[in-house]
Amino acid sequence: TEAQDEPTLEQQFAQFQTQVKEIAEDLTEKTKTTFEQLEKSEFAVKTKNWFTEQFEKMKQTLSESFN
């Protein structure tokens, strides 16, 4: 009968749970990939290097001031 062909509430919930898990895993992987790409981007590398240089200059200036 038609009623027998329809999934039970438990089956629907299990299917929904599986779909949510797949979406979450996909989103996690995409987010991870995006952050890895950003971390390795030319802009990120140049920015990190610039901050490192500025910090070293500041340390040098402070060191010279207190000696």
From TrEMBL:
GO terms for cellular component: high-density lipoprotein particle; very-low-density lipoprotein particle. GO terms for molecular function: fatty acid binding; phospholipase inhibitor activity. The keyword Transport applies. It is found in: Secreted. Keywords: Lipid transport, Secreted, Signal, Transport. Its main location: secreted. GO terms for biological process: lipid transport; lipoprotein metabolic process; negative regulation of cholesterol transport; negative regulation of lipid catabolic process; negative regulation of very-low-density lipoprotein particle clearance; triglyceride metabolic process; very-low-density lipoprotein particle clearance. The keyword Transport applies. Belongs to the apolipoprotein C1 family. This is Apolipoprotein C-I. The lineage of its organism: Eukaryota, Metazoa, Chordata, Craniata, Vertebrata.
